[in-house]
Structure formats: C-alpha cells, structure tokens
Amino acid sequence: MAKAISSEVGTGSREDNASRQQAGAPFRSDRSGQGSSEILRLEKVCKAYNVGQPNETEVLHDIDLELGHGEFLALMGPSGSGKSTLLNIVGLLDRPTSGRLLIKGQDTAALGDAEITHLRGHTIGFVFQYHLLISAFTARENVMMPMLVDRGFPNAEIEARANRLLAQIGLEKFADNLANNMSGGQQQRVAVARALAMNPDLVLADEPTGNLDTHSADAVFALMRQVNRDSGTSFLLVTHNIELARRCDRIIEVIDGRIRA
Ligand code: ADP
Ligand code: MG
User: Fold this and answer.
1) What is the pTM of this model?
2) Is the pLDDT of residue 9 over 50?
3) Domains, in order of start, for the chain
C-alpha cells in the first residue's frame, strides 16, 4: 500500500519541502487515503517465552488493541507486566505466539522476513529509554543512519533531510556534536528525529523519558506531541509518568500481561 504522504520529513520533493518549511508547517503531511481505519490492530495476541521448554511462560494473554491513525496512546503498567514485550511485537521485532497483528490493515502473519523488515523500516520508528544513539557519531550522522541503512533515499537527500529534522527539533546548532557530548534530553530529542527519519506512520516509544529530569522529559514529550499533531504520526508511548500520560489521547493499562478493562 503506497503512502500518500508528502512532507518535509517525508518523501516529498525538495521544492515541496522548502515551501512547506517557509510556510512554517514542520512535520506536516497528508496521511489520508491509507485504506484502513486503524494503523494497528491486535486480536487475541499471546506471547510465551521459552516455548516447549520446562520454563515456558506466557507473559501476554489475549491482548486486543486498536490504534487509530493519528492517535497518541499511553501504555502504563507495573514493571514486568509485559509492556516492552507488547511493543516488541507491535514493532515487528518479535512474533506473537498466537493471535493476529494487523498493521495498516495487513495481517503480518502472512509476511516473510524480508517483507517484515521492509514494513518495520518504512512504517515504524523506535525511541527507547536509553536513547541508543551511536555515541561516537555526530547528531547528524545518527539521524542519517536509518536512511543510510535503507538506501531508499538518494544520497544527496539524506544529509539535507537529517539537517531539516535537526532544525525541526531545535538542535540544528548541535548537528556536528558527538552524541556523547550532548545532554540526556538533547540525545533523546535526536533519537526522536532519528525515529522520524523514514517518515513512519507509527512511533513506538518505550519509556523514552524514564531517565530524564522533569524539564527534559517535558521537552521530549512536547516534541513527540507536536509531531503527532502536525503530521498525524501515531504514537504508542510507554510511560510511568501519569502527568504525561494524561496529556495523551487515551491511556491503557497492562497488568500481568492483560489489558485492564
Ligand atoms: P515491562 O516492559 O512491562 O517491564 P517486559 O515485557 O519486559 O515487561 O517483561 C514481561 C515479562 O516477560 C517479565 O516477567 C519478564 O521477566 C519476561 N521476559 C521478558 N523478556 C523475556 C525473554 N526474552 N525471555 C524470557 N522472559 C522474558
Ligand atoms: Mg519495559
């Protein structure tokens, strides 16, 4: 399914992008016409670890979940309740033991490894608690990385696009800084820019503000919310911070591997 998107963080032409940027509409894109009413649907998803071994344990039980296009959902729950396991499944990093996972209406069970890799790379962006930037690379190089790996963008576009993303998160002056030499909050904003590099439909953020001070946590959250509002990118945010969760469209809670009704 082709994405009907043109945006300066998307695949639009440079001219389009420049005119949009001048119009002061960072992150704006048109995500209409994508063919399914939700970006994500889980039906009775279960996940067990160590299947077939004496220590087999099911950690997710019959998860039903839908996420609409452009929705910003907070996922809360105690440590060990299965939030990261759920995000790994939604992010196509792991497969459910049973149940169905549909992304943009497409049942992922039918997809082979190459198709899964392509879908993950082009549809989903990741932000983790420990930013996982490459510390010896500059901010710009970190943002360029997903595009270099994908090779879907012309080389000449990649650096310009990384620069635009850094400008949009207000860190253009830090483009040449090594990730190592930036504050935790700045690094996490760079990680958000990197997650947006491929213009994903959905960003999965696993406790992205968990080790930040209140001010930096707020800045990272505000950035994600702005991207969500401007571009219609959907977000699934795992957080322990009730103040931030309340600023999301909806909160769901995972307790012992089940969604609390
Ligand atoms: P949360 O992110 O909510 O803290 P996790 O999804 O990380 O929870 O973990 C849910 C449960 O699954 C925990 O009991 C954890 O120990 C277990 N678990 C997570 N990953 C694995 C794994 N790779 N192998 C076995 N058990 C795991
Ligand atoms: Mg976790």
Assistant:
1) 0.86
2) no
3) 7-260 (3.40.50.300)
